[in-house]
Design brief:
Blueprint: E1 9-16, H1 26-41, E2 46-54, E3 57-64, H2 70-88, E4 103-107, H3 112-120, H4 122-128, H5 133-136
Antiparallel strand pairs: 1-3, 1-4, 2-3
Helix pairs in contact: 1-2
Length: 141
């Protein structure tokens, strides 16, 4: 693809743990978010703004270049993070498993500050019941 382009492709991404179980304890969540951040920083054409979530799901706010295949990026993030957590936190059971699927919503650059805040403060939004349904959805209905 030509490097002569202009783009503002801002994405909010969400996915859940398998069966939405509370697998993201503080230790696992911290390690998972750090792994995801490093993976995103190392991904060509991706700028990570924020990573957040609760004990059963992850939210990510990124800007991507038009050369990035979104479904491929998300698949790699999910697969690599589960593999990493399960290798580095070996127990009898798998420490981290992801549910199939994800939600991705594009948004304008003027909305970047509030989307970042929303992702950063996931625990507070869920505790207060002030979630934005559009940013929590993983299915069409």
């Amino acid at each position: 693809m030509s490097r002569n382009y202009y783009s503002e492709i801002n994405l909010h991404i969400v996915w859940h743990t398998k069966q939405s179980r509370p697998l993201l304890s503080l230790e696992i969540e911290t390690a998972t978010h750090a792994f995801l951040r490093k993976r995103l920083v190392d991904s060509e054409g991706v700028f990570v703004h924020e990573i957040g979530g609760t004990e059963n799901h992850v939210h990510i706010c990124v800007t991507v270049l038009p050369t990035v295949l979104v479904s491929e990026l998300i698949g790699q993030l999910k697969g690599a993070s589960a593999h990493e957590m399960n290798q580095n936190h070996p127990t009898r059971d798998k420490v981290l498993q992801w549910q199939s699927g994800y939600g991705v919503v594009s948004f304008g650059t003027k909305d970047l500050p509030w989307v970042r805040e929303y992702v950063r403060n996931q625990k507070q939004h869920h505790a207060a019941g002030s979630v934005h349904e559009r940013l929590e959805r993983m299915t069409q209905d």
